[in-house]
Amino acid sequence: MDYCKYHPLDGATYTCHACNVCQCDKCIDDEHNVVHCFVCGGVLESLGSANTVEPFWRRLKEAFKYPVNANSMSLIVITAIISVVATLMPFLMILSVLMYLFAAGSIMKYSFTCLERTAMGEMKAPDVMDAYQGGIKLLLQLVLMVIVLTAIAGAAYYYLGAGLGGLVGFIAVFSFPAILIRFAQTENMFEAMNPFAAIALIAAIGLPYGLLIAFMLIMMTSVGVLHEWIGTLFPAVSYLLQSVVSNYYTVVMFHLMGYMLFQYQGQLGYSARSDEDEDLPKRSGPEHLAAKIEVLLKEGDYEQVVKLSYQAFKQYPNEPIFFEKFFELLYACKKTELLADYGLTYLEFLNRRKRFDKLTPTFKQILFVVPEFLPNSPAMRVQLAGLLRQQGDLKLAIKLLNGMHKLYPEFAGLPDAYYLLADTLAEMPNMQSQADKCRQMAAQLKRKADERQAALALEVEQKRLAETQASSKPTGVKTARKGPPPGTTLSGITLELVPLEPVVNKAEDIDV
To answer: 378 and which of 137, 297, 346, 411 could share a cystine (Cβ 3.0–4.6 Å)?
Structure first.
């Protein structure tokens, strides 16, 4: 059995002769009609489902459900009724024989069709219309093969003795399913009865062939048990039920024989795919790109993986998998410049996903690769600082908040940021004076922010009044708009702070 190179526990469904590797359905480039290799771009050869198909003894439940549909059950019941009616018409011998041949031929033709379709990977029962063409001819050929096998066993018993005759008879019975399978494959009675071909088929399948024989014997025996239960009390009902169950088991047995061929297609020299696999939805663009990235990553082509990952999270900004994989790749490869540019993007992505538990660990991962990294977002700095303070990492929290009034003078959350900085400093030894001065600064920032907010509100109100007056005077005279009160500065905030005195043994230099 061949396994996928990139998923060693999964069976392979394709092989690349250029790379000399086998691959599963998850590792192929199926974006176009022809399947290609992600690594070399060459066309892949299909291995069918030989390495991925479930053994037939594990599909007994599905096998018994196989004929349970309107078409199949209607054929099973109708042919059973015709067979019972034929047995109840001894006075019309010719019509009775024709009816029985038609019923038996139809069910056998349909069963052979099930075998052929299943062997090619079609796991749904075929249309019953295929049962009404050539059924009687098929049945006569089967009867002729049974007569020939019986004659051979009888001749062996007569000329070679009871021991060898019994052995030949056992071999004939044991190989009969193989003969039926060969007959379904070749549609030639002489080729099907070739003993060497039957032996080769049994040898290719091996021990599971004997298991199939055991299942067939159990099903045949159950029909006889059913007849014993109700045959003496209700003969007509017994014949009908026996015929229905017999037809049902015949379809199931032929389906199992076809599935056994499908399972051992590699040993039997052909390739087929299950329609259950083909009915799976086609991979989306993100799934296809993710598969390519995974294959190239396992091949060690990191530069190409970095390019594809960058393309992926740009092309599909709402796909979490690309954000995470790109960050993990940059961190593992120690891509300093890319990680410095991507760090804030990934932190904001985690924040949008409400993965607050990963914010500080991710920030520390970035610092490990880029020690000077600080997110260029005041809101992210404040959020990280608050989380770090809760976790006891005071120095890193102070580093994030220090000097924010210079870097982001227009940030509305500056007062809260410096209150947070003051509280953080207060928890450190010998930093109480710095904490007090930060609180003074926070108070000034709060006052200036309130003044600015009031000035903006006044400007908006004056503008609204001016527009109202202009709309009430149709003369076209424009009302002069008054500006903000003199002395109010809107473009920035002027702070007058008490200089911080140097602190002995301080953990960080606080820039206020």
So the answer is: 411
- pLDDT tens-place string over residues 451-509: 777 877 788 878 888 878 777 665 544 444 444 444 433 334 333 333 334 333 344 45
Burial 67-96 (b: 16+ CB within 10 A, else e): beeeebbebbeebbebbbebeeeeeeeeeb
CA dihedral 446, 448, 454, 459 (to 10 degrees): -140
**Phi and psi torsions of 14, nearest 5°:** -140, 160
Range of the domain at 106: 56-275
- Give DSSP secondary structure letters for 346-381: HHHHHHHTT-GGGHHHHHHHHHHH-TT---S-HHHH
Helices (H), 67-206: 70-87, 93-119, 135-160, 162-186, 189-192, 195-205
The two three-digit tokens of residue 35, written as one number: 């399947």
Alpha-carbon 336 to chain mean position: 34
Torsion on CA atoms 134, 140, 143, 149, rounded to nearest 10: -100
CA angle 353-354-360, nearest 5°?
110
**Residue 170: CB atoms within 10 Å:** 11
Low-confidence ranges of the chain (pLDDT < 50): 476-508
How far apart are alpha carbons 498 and 512 in whole angstroms? 9
Domain's final residue, options 246, 275, 304: 275
